[in-house]
Structure formats: structure tokens, C-alpha cells
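Entry 14. Ran structure prediction on the chain below.
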Amino acid sequence: MEGSSVAPAGEKADLVDILYVEDNPADVYLTEQALNEIRVTNRLHVVKDGEEAVDFLRRQGAHARAPRPDLILLDLNMPRKSGLEVLAEIKADPQLRGIPVVILTSSRSEEDIERSYDLHANCYVTKPLDLEEYFHAVRCVEALYLSVVKLPPKQN
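Output, C-alpha cells:
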């Protein structure tokens, strides 16, 4: 599943590739809807588990032609390989560690929060249960990482 938003007429925006690692289709849909309302042109790439995320990032198997993402939104509670395991692999790999990783999860566990930061997550966002608050949280991530923060240069 991929979604994109379009820059307003007359504005040229760089394409931002976002990898969303999430196994819940409802959360994918909500995040896609929130991102479609922003002013940054983005391409949302969705993978459903941690093993597929690693394949995407390393451009293996079905993801051999995957772009290098500018930002990773990472859920923690997933089948096959947890978000914490994926985060550890990303931050241990010199080719991947510079990609900002935003933990976007329903976990409110202090242990998960502490472990995520120990593994060098860039930030930790707990998914709100309220729809408008969820949209607001995604828009805040977008505002920070895609509008305010200077991301590393694109690499192939």
C-alpha cells in the first residue's frame, strides 16, 4: 500500500520516502489519511512485519528496488520480528543508522520507551486512541521531521 500527498500548485517539493512498519491495517489507513493532508510530497511504503522491514531497508527479495527511506515510522508490537529488534538492526548498520526512526506504537510501557531510546530511536510517540488526537500526533511527527528538521541527504 502506498499513498502520496501533493504539494500545493506553484510549489516544488522534494519527494520524501517514508517507511511505515505496521501490521494493523486500520492504523496504516489512519496514518495514510493524516499524511495525505500535509503539504509535503511523500510516498508511504508499508511493510507488515519486522522481517519485511529489514528486507526493505537492505533491498532484498521482493524489495530489491526499494528506495532508501528518509524517515521510518516503526511499530513495536509486530509478528516475526519486533520493532525493538528492527530498531537494533537499523542503528547497528552504518548504512542505515542515519535514517531517523520514530517509534509509533500503542505501547505505553516505560520499559519499551527506555529500551527504544537506549537503541537510539529519534523519538517515541504513543498512538492516541481518539481519532483526532491520532491525526494530530501524525501531523506533529510530519511537522517536525518533514518540515522543520533537516534530514540527511538522500542516498541510493
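The radius of gyration is 15 Å. Will compare against last week's run tomorrow.
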